[in-house]
Amino acid sequence: MATHNKQASFLLFSLLILVSLFKSSQAAGIAIYWGQSGNEGSLADTCATGNYQYVNIAFLTTFGGGKTPVLNLAGHCNPSVNGCTRLSTPIKACQARGIKVLLSIGGGIGSYSLSSADDAKQVANYLWNNYLGGSSNSRPLGDAVLDGIDFDIEAGGSNHWDELARSLSGFSQQKKVYLAAAPQCPFPDAHLDAAIKTGLFDYVWVQFYNNGQCQYAGNANNLLSAWKKWATVQAKQVFLGLPAAAAAAPRGGFIPADVLKAQVLPSIKSSPKYGGVMLWSKLFDNGYSAAIKGSI
Predict the structure, then answer these.
(1) Catalytic annotation on 163?
(2) Are 64 and 114 in contact (CB under 8 A)?
(3) Which helix (H) or strand (E) holds 279?
(4) Which of 160, 80, 68, 171 is closest to 114 using CA atoms?
(5) Per the confidence metrics, is the pTM higher than 0.85?
(6) N or C: lower Cβ tally within 10 Å for the chain?
(7) Pairwise CA distance, residues 270 & 238, whole Å
């Protein structure tokens, strides 16, 4: 009897350890977008703050439809003369800190679309060989292997993004490709609905800004109502996407840090899929992430 009790106690202890490990692996964090302003600081400094668990390098603004893909990192570097290959070292440094670094494709200004399932596969192959675990003679970010791809699709129609997700996910048999999506908060998203429904996305960071019907506007009622819908999607984790300052979202949605901590986070953290907060963007994050990270 005593031996049985010892075995039961050991099994229970082991189970508790596993549960705690699982919870820590699913710990909430902050995602940030970096790359659209030379005034936002370096990638190395961004990761060194200790505030972020995910960094989206933004953006690959041109791709699909037979177009030559174009990486646009604003004032940071010029990929047309291989000027961005130097980012390989800071990318690796970020990853060494446990930060996942993704390439964000799309954005609010760009020329991108997918014309067919074959086009989606071709784009996936390009991304795999030039940014992920494949190989190419023309890797814009050097030999660093990014952790995944973020779909910030705000144009280019709604067709074939699901096929792009499936094609990228297929490469995970060789090396895990994390998939993220940044839909607008009106539910469902006009561009990414079919893609998100594949269930292949690890992170869905919803843009609760520049969308009057589902963003914070003196109270959180509309935001929380929309959050409940987004918390049901087939994704591993769902994030609250916010502007890091009022100037980051001209059409509104900024939530002061104290209001976020008191009125919003307590209501959404109970969701089993809650993954944390996404911020747009590093340029505007002058203390916001530091103010909220202890409450994420």
Answers:
(1) no
(2) yes
(3) strand 274-280
(4) 160
(5) yes
(6) N
(7) 12
Structure tokens belonging to residue 245: 């300052």
Q: What is the pLDDT along the chain (296 residues), one digit of tens a residue?
A: 454 454 544 444 544 444 344 443 468 999 999 999 999 999 999 999 999 999 999 999 999 999 999 999 999 999 999 999 999 999 999 999 999 999 999 999 999 999 999 999 999 999 999 999 999 999 999 999 999 999 999 999 999 999 999 999 999 999 999 999 999 999 999 999 999 999 999 999 999 999 999 999 999 999 999 999 999 999 999 999 999 999 999 999 999 999 999 999 999 999 999 999 999 999 999 999 999 999 99
C-alpha distances out from residue 170 to 112, 173, 177, 266, Å:
22, 6, 9, 37
CA 273 to chain centroid, in Å, comes to 14
**What does the block give as tokens for 151?**
């779909």
What tokens were used for 174? Answer: 């060789």
120 DSSP assignment: H
Distance, in Å, from the CA atom of 50 to the CA atom of 218, rounded to the nearest integer, reads 30
CA distances from 17 to 14, 23, 142, 178 (A): 5, 10, 40, 26
- What's the maximum distance between 2 C-alpha atoms anywhere in the chain? 74
* Cis status of the peptide bond prior to 239, with omega within 30 of 0: no
- SS3 state of residue 104: strand
Between CA 91 and CA 232, with CA 249 as vertex, the angle to 5 degrees is 75
Active site residue: 40, 147, 152, 154, which one? 154
The residues near 227 (Cβ < 8 Å, ≥ 6 apart) are 206, 208, 240, 267, 268, 271
All residues at 6 or more sequence positions from 272 whose CB lies less than 8 Å from its CB, including other chains: none
